[in-house]
Design goal:
CATH architecture of the largest domain in chain A: 3-Layer(aba) Sandwich
Radius of gyration of chain A: 25 Å
Distance between the termini of chain A: 50 Å
Radius of gyration of chain B: 19 Å
Low-confidence stretches of chain B: none
Strand content of chain B: 5-15%
CATH topology of the largest domain in chain B: Glutaredoxin
Mean pLDDT of chain B: 90
Largest sheet of chain B: 4 strands, mixed
Number of domains of chain A: 3
Oligomer: heterodimer
Number of strands of chain B: 4
CATH superfamily of the largest domain in chain B: Glutaredoxin
Largest sheet of chain A: 5 strands, mixed
CATH architecture of the largest domain in chain B: 3-Layer(aba) Sandwich
Distance between the termini of chain B: 26 Å
Order of helices and strands of chain B: HHHHEHHEEEH
Strand order of the largest sheet of chain A: 2-1-5-3-4
CATH class of the largest domain in chain B: Alpha Beta
């Protein structure tokens, strides 16, 4: 069908909204509550447009097109209405942009600039609320909330966690955790999907920048940093590079200039995880252990299963996540080798994740000292680089320090959903048959689908595997396990849709296009790696022969494995 | 404990995993307890398999639901137009100050609950409050304090008598 937008005739499909058509035609209509792939709510009204013959303005995100429709997206009436909506939102907002962590990439701030809001036209009572800082990972400032509902929708509809929802009504409306308690007391899994979907500064990560700076500036401390696989394909965005640009070398150089004593790669920990996890999987297969085995790298997922499916904790791999393994080794193996007092060592992880902040303070992850002392997100690292006056673009490419700087393509793909599975299969194949697979790429478990499954033939065995991302998608599979009807041997689970590349700590805004590009880059790193199987990592091999002994052996269990806790369903 | 056991009947009445029962269940729970205890909202959530946050969100949306038990004396302050003109806001503030609670809350000793109502229907004696079923009109902040004292005294006497029995 044809409609006209601002006088131009455009082609449209029945069922599309005005926003869909305008988007395709390159006509920008501002949105706040809109989320692609979700049914529209039309709650913020900022996408308001004029439709000829229709008396009142209509929301473009929710209004379906019809043959012969004539739309104005830029009439004086539309502009005036949008400006008023912004002014009303601002009137109920703290307006403390100077101190807000989202200043510069806040969607409300951007709109006030675009629509030329230059004065406080409406002044009056404003919503008052307490900041909630009790969660180890996420901070909430309800006064900044504009009630767009994106956090609520992602928490309920994508994650099926439902930790937060709208409460009260009218002027008192707010987004709050269940029973208006603090976020740390409800079954929030700290995944941070609410943070990446928040248009303003109402939801942010709990910053660890301060303790990290303090450690760096303390001459007594030996400060070690490690970088997760998904950080290097996203950090560049913070400095204006094309999404998906691989900035590994510059990231390492920046970390050295920030003053870290050693810069290591979490991909090394990932390779190590694969050796342990593949060994564990084969052990379970051979000894009729609890099946299917579920991966344990994603701390949001771990918290989810502890809250909602505690009866299935036996299915979880006992492997710590890669950065925790690496932290444990830094404070034991590395400290011993270099005569460093582990009490004076400070391990920092740069992660694409908010849940890792919570994970780092789990008491079972560490012995005398925590394995990891602080976790900063990709965004926080960018802030530290900026405040240190480092021109990211002028940095040379530098390499990681030894020995935990060596990694393979298998470690790199941990950053994308399906990657852990693929990496584990490469090593399991070698362990079972003594040779590497002919093709190291598994197309069926790559990509951004929420549930991907495959049958993988390794020698005599056929393994049924699945890779799941987004917590909503794992529920049916867990129910099958509960009922004893699960056909799978091995399931990878990532809390965030698409995996770590779309983690709660990644640069904002996180658009589907950027997520796709970050994913492509992750696999590009793998393709270009000289070694693509974790068991080919020579530093990992050496670590086993000189220190750890056998995979899944006594020492490995002590340092690299953990246990889980049953938590309240609430 | 006994109350808990009895509330079991509420849950037996409704099918599991049927979210459309939410408001009916909340009404039954409130009727049983006089308010919606946190633990019961959690139980309702488990029963119909939706997050507690949603149960609480729905419950707080409607004015009919309370989240604290009612006091022995429920004081309803009329905030209608006539009472407003006659100074009902002062009456309300005085009550809140005297009892140390806000409208919608119950004092810690479970004696008093303050509620506001849009119009109590007794405009001729504005400003007016109702304590349980007794109406008190033509109030001033001073007469209100006196009234409140009489209820507090009453309460203590009945307690003393109770002990003697």
């Amino acid at each position: 069908m044809n409609i006209t937008v601002n006088g131009h005739t455009c082609w449209a499909k029945p069922g599309e909204t005005i926003l869909d058509v305008a988007d395709r035609e390159g006509i920008k209509i501002p949105t706040l509550c809109h989320m692609s792939d979700f049914s529209p709510t039309g709650s913020c009204r900022i996408c308001t447009v004029e439709v000829e013959g229709n008396g009142s303005l209509v929301p473009a995100c929710a209004f379906p097109v019809y043959e012969g429709m004539a739309v104005q997206t830029n009439s004086p009436r539309v502009r005036r209405a949008r400006k008023t909506i912004i002014e009303l939102l601002v009137a109920n907002h703290p307006q403390d942009c100077l101190f807000c962590v989202r200043s510069g990439n806040c969607e409300l701030q951007k709109l006030t600039q675009e629509y030329g809001v230059r004065s406080h036209r409406y002044a009056g009572e404003r919503r008052r609320a307490r900041i909630d800082i009790a969660s180890p990972a996420i901070e909430r400032d309800p006064e900044k909330c504009i009630l767009c509902g994106r956090c609520v929708r992602v928490c309920h509809e994508v994650q099926h966690v439902g930790a937060i929802d709208f409460v009260h009504r009218g002027f008192k409306s707010a987004v709050a955790p269940a029973l208006e308690r603090s976020l740390n007391t409800v079954p929030c899994v700290d995944c941070g999907q609410c943070v990446v979907n928040c248009p303003v500064g109402a939801l942010t990560e709990k910053s660890h920048q301060k303790p990290v700076w303090e450690a760096i500036n303390d001459p007594e401390r030996f400060v070690v940093v490690q970088v997760a696989p998904a950080v290097r394909v996203a950090l560049g965005e913070e400095f204006g590079t094309e999404p998906g640009t691989v900035v590994t070398g510059k990231t390492v150089a920046a970390l050295r200039r920030l003053g870290f004593d050693q810069v290591f790669d979490t991909n090394f920990g990932a390779d190590l995880t694969i050796i342990e996890e593949a060994t564990e999987l084969l052990g379970r297969l051979n000894n009729c252990g609890i099946m299917p085995m579920l991966t344990s790298c994603s701390p949001g997922w771990i918290k989810f299963i502890e809250h909602c499916y505690p009866d299935l904790l036996g299915n979880l791999s006992s492997c710590k996540s890669p950065h925790e393994m690496e932290g444990a080794l830094l404070k034991s193996f590395y400290a011993q080798r270099h005569g460093i007092d582990p009490a004076k060592m400070f391990v920092v992880s740069v992660m694409p994740c908010t849940a890792k902040k919570y994970e780092a303070q789990r008491p079972e992850l560490g012995s005398e000292f925590p394995d990891v002392d602080a976790v900063i997100t990709t965004r926080e690292l960018a802030r530290m680089i900026r405040v240190a006056g480092i021109d990211f673009h002028k940095l040379p490419n530098e390499g990681f320090d030894d020995p935990m700087g060596e990694s393979t393509g298998a470690g790199a793909i941990f950053g994308a959903a399906g990657g852990v599975m693929e990496a584990a299969l490469r090593t399991a194949h070698h362990a079972l048959t003594g040779s590497d697979m002919k093709s190291l790429s598994f197309a069926p478990i790559r990509g951004l689908d929420g549930v991907k499954q495959a049958d993988v033939r390794i020698g005599e065995v056929t393994l049924k595997v699945a890779a799941v991302s987004g917590l909503k998608n794992i529920k049916p599979l867990l129910d099958d396990i509960r009922n004893g009807t699960s056909p799978f041997h091995f399931i990878e689970v990532m809390a965030c849709p698409g995996g770590c590349i779309n983690g709660g700590g990644q640069p904002l805004p996180s658009t589907p296009e950027k997520i796709r590009k970050r994913t492509e880059s992750i696999y590009q790193i793998d393709r270009e790696s000289p070694r693509r199987c974790s068991h080919r990592n020579e530093s990992v091999q050496k670590l086993y022969s000189e220190f750890l002994g056998e995979p899944n052996g006594h020492r490995a269990h002590e340092l690299l494995h953990t246990h889980y806790v049953e938590r309240d369903e609430f | 404990m006994q109350v808990q056991e009895n509330s079991q009947q509420i849950y037996e009445k409704y099918p599991r995993k049927d979210a459309s029962c939410l408001i009916d269940m909340l009404q039954d729970v409130q009727e049983h307890f006089g308010y919606l205890p946190d633990a019961e909202m959690q139980r309702v959530a488990r029963h119909i398999d939706i997050p507690v946050s949603r149960v609480y969100g729905v419950a707080t949306f409607y004015n009919q639901f309370r989240f604290q038990p009612l006091g022995k004396y429920v004081i309803r302050v009329c905030r209608g137009t006539a009472c407003h003109v006659k100074g009902s806001l002062d009456i309300l503030r005085t009550l809140e100050n005297e009892l140390g609670i806000k409208a919608g809350q119950t004092s810690k000793d479970l004696r008093f609950t303050i509620e506001t109502v849009a119009c109590i229907g007794a405009c001729s004696i504005a400003p007016v409050i109702a304590v349980n079923d007794e109406f008190h009109g033509g109030l001033t902040t001073k007469s209100l304090q006196k009234l409140l004292k009489s209820y507090q005294k009453n309460d203590r006497q009945s307690e003393v008598q109770h002990e003697h029995v």
